[in-house]
Amino acid sequence: MTGLRGTPVETRVTRWTDGLPQYAVGHADRVERIRSGVRRHPGLGACGAAYGGVGIPACVADAGHEAARLADTLTDHSRTTGGDQSAAGPNQQGVNP
User: pLDDT tens, 38-59?
Assistant: First the structure.
């Protein structure tokens, strides 16, 4: 890649022990209880390192799953309310902005 030739003069491998947090026993059950409670409130979601994984790829995947779930919830909710209101819905005076 670099076009350099030759044998390295020095190499080093560093292993980071305890580099990423480890969840405690029972964490998955605790997260499921939290998410179950969150699902009872349409439009509310919970994602991130505390819920779906500590690495960046895990956090991104968790956010994607939660965003898809929220989109489905909001789409289903708009069908049950008639679907003819704007995305913002009526304001406190009962009119769409």
Answer: 999 988 999 999 998 888 999 9
Nearest to 52 by CA among 33, 27, 26, 24: 27
Give a yes or no: residue 60 inside a domain: yes
* In a domain? residue 9: no
The residue type of 52 is G
Nearest to 35 by CA among 53, 51, 55, 56: 51
Number of separate domains in the chain: 1
Q: Structure pTM?
A: 0.57
pLDDT in tens, 17-27: 877 788 899 99
Can you tell me the distance from the alpha carbon of 71 to that of 69, in angstroms, rounded to the nearest whole number? 5
Domain that holds residue 71: 48-81
- 21 found inside a domain: no
User: Is 8 inside a domain boundary?
Assistant: no
* Predicted confidence band of residue 78 (pLDDT cuts 50, 70, 90): low
Question: How far is Cα 54 from Cα 31, in angstroms, rounded to an integer?
Answer: 14
